[in-house]
Amino acid sequence: MNKKEIFSSFLKLRGFRFTPQRERVLEEAFSIHKHFEAEDLLVRIRQNGHRVSKATIYRTLALLIQCGLLREVIFGERHSHYEHTLGPKHHHLICLRCGKIIEFTDETIERVQQRVCEKHRFEPSQRRFEIIGYCENCAKHL
Amino acid sequence: MNKKEIFSSFLKLRGFRFTPQRERVLEEAFSIHKHFEAEDLLVRIRQNGHRVSKATIYRTLALLIQCGLLREVIFGERHSHYEHTLGPKHHHLICLRCGKIIEFTDETIERVQQRVCEKHRFEPSQRRFEIIGYCENCAKHL
DNA sequence: TTTGCAATTGAGTCTAAGTTTCAACTACAA
DNA sequence: TTGTAGTTGAAACTTAGACTCAATTGCAAA
Description:
2 copies of one chain form a homodimer.
Chain A: H1 3-13, H2 20-31, H3 38-47, H4 54-66, E1 70-73, E2 81-84, E3 91-95, E4 101-104, H5 107-119, E5 123-134, H6 136-139
Helix pairs in contact in A: 2-4, 3-4
The structure holds a DNA duplex.
């Protein structure tokens, strides 16, 4: 199943519709291969000669998160960022000075999560592991 | 050095002042022994018969974070929460349904952080490890 | 003690992300 | 064809937090 099928069957299942606007947002969200914000989608959709309202973009992003195709990631800023859930799970090093985001993977984390969730009988659906500080270059300028 | 001394010497060091308002915010922030938000401080300060403006509270919180006495934690909501940095480092299980926050500690995480930071020559100043999902009770109601 | 200056404060204004509202529109099933 | 429920966009709204600025205050040097 590709993204489109996943999303449309997710929608159908709960009596929602797979509309042209929702398809547009889906396509655009997956044409970006890094973290993005709602505003990015708005701009790119417009640049490609289409038009989807802000409200619909936010509504669709919420659906894409619900159906598990996207995940919300939180950097220092006051607005949300999104990323694809496909591909290996990764975490982030966030530079406070230049804003650079370095991704890393670590399989120990998965085991920690399992252990902790078992202990507290917690049902995980996603996680966030972010180390905040200064990248190699910026650390020199402190 | 207690909190007051840490804060006031942090301020003096950079030519800032340890004012009554800043002291008020410090005291109030440390009289709460769990996560809190800016609004909580505003209310509590007023309840104790004092008065510190919203602007000053936000400004002082930023200073307390800078000097390392407080840390910003991010739960699902659109506004910030804060916690004391003193005491053992811990992480959070966040329930999406009832909003409950369960704290846990895990020493493996510290080692993961060290390993990752060394590899990327990253200078860490804080971290976030949050597992988002459903607590034992809420998992039943899904 | 006085003086001058830079830091600080509070009230109010502003910003921007995201949400809500609602009337018009649309897909689909009966 | 019609009824119903989902969807859309425009605009208004919400809210945390940042900014502005005139008035105030703390402190260091005279």
